[in-house]
Write a structure and sequence with these properties.
Elements lengths: L2 E3 L11 E3 L14 E3 L24 E3 L12 E7 L8 E6 L4 E5 L9 E2 L13 E3 L8 E3 L1 E2 L6 E3 L7 E7 L2 E5 L5 E5 L3 E4 L15 H6 L56 E3 L8
Antiparallel strand pairs: 1-2, 3-4, 5-6, 5-8, 6-7, 9-16, 10-13, 10-16, 11-12, 13-14, 14-15, 15-17
């Protein structure tokens, strides 16, 4: 997969790039595995905006993804590699020997016709196979990792992401997450071998505001461009600094580099090293 650039026929096209979708092999999704998606536009059941900068966008259908991969010891053949409008990674349509169809988050370089397997026994360590962490050799890259055994994969599911398995000790696996955090996960938790597909997604240059609106992303306005009543950074004449010791959120809380995780959580003991802070020195 690669990034495709166009000739600069317009000012917007000059700074735009798109993905080469030559890896996508299917034009239509499996009808039994799609659902309608209701638009929320970042609003709750009272109609109030709880998540800013959302709204509009192209119509989408939800693909039902199998994060649990709980059909054990039944080989599945990759029937197609598909585009999913709800995620930046590719998805693979699996056809099991008993005739059932399921979607999975596709690993990088997975091809149509290959077989993948989910098992709680030792199997080949090839991309797309799903097995417990205790059976995976340390040093391998994995994705779609469970936090709680049997709940389904929750970690490393977006394009190009992977987790480094550092080792197994005292019933837990040590994982280095893409953020740099080192975390303990039960060794019985399942994970998929490989790296998530579509790693070039992060290199796309969207080029113009219209493409962002098609994705359902509304404009983001700088706080310092607002009035004082709307944002702590607002007010002043011309291009002024924010006038505060630390940047603030629109609701007056300190932003950028401040820890937002609540203290005393049950999972604190499983985090060996926190991710690096973004705060500028």
């Amino acid at each position: 997969m690669a990034i495709k650039f166009y000739k600069p026929t317009t000012s917007a096209r000059r700074h735009t790039s798109v993905l080469d979708n030559s890896d996508v092999t299917a034009k239509r999704s499996a009808k039994s595995l799609i659902l309608s998606k209701k638009r929320q536009a970042g609003r709750n059941n009272q109609g109030k905006i709880t998540v800013r900068h959302q709204g509009g966008g192209s119509r989408k259908k939800v693909r039902i993804i199998d994060y649990k991969r709980d059909k054990f010891d039944i080989p599945a053949r990759v029937k197609a590699i598909e585009y999913d409008p709800n995620r930046n990674a590719r998805i693979a349509l699996l056809s099991y020997r008993d005739g059932e169809l399921r979607y999975m988050v596709a690993p990088d370089a997975l091809k149509v016709g290959q077989e993948v397997l989910s098992s709680k026994k030792i199997i080949d360590f090839k991309a797309g196979n799903h097995l417990p962490l205790e059976l995976i050799p340390p040093g391998m890259m994995i994705y779609n990792v469970e936090l709680v055994p049997g709940r389904g994969g929750q970690l490393a599911r977006s394009a190009g992401n992977s987790i480094y398995l550092m080792g197994i000790d005292n019933g837990h696996a040590q994982l280095r997450l893409p953020s740099g955090e080192v975390r303990l996960v039960p060794q019985e938790a399942m994970a998929t071998i490989g790296t998530v597909s579509n790693p070039d997604f992060k290199n796309i240059r969207w080029g113009k505001a219209g493409r962002m609106r098609h994705r359902g992303i509304r404009p983001t306005v700088r706080g310092k461009a607002m009035n004082p009543v709307d944002h702590p950074h607002g007010g002043g004449e011309g291009h002024n600094p924010i006038g505060l010791k630390n940047p603030k959120t629109p609701w007056g809380k300190v932003a950028l580099g401040v820890k937002t995780r609540k203290g005393g959580k049950r999972s604190d003991k499983f985090i060996l090293r926190r991710r690096p802070s973004r705060k500028k020195k």
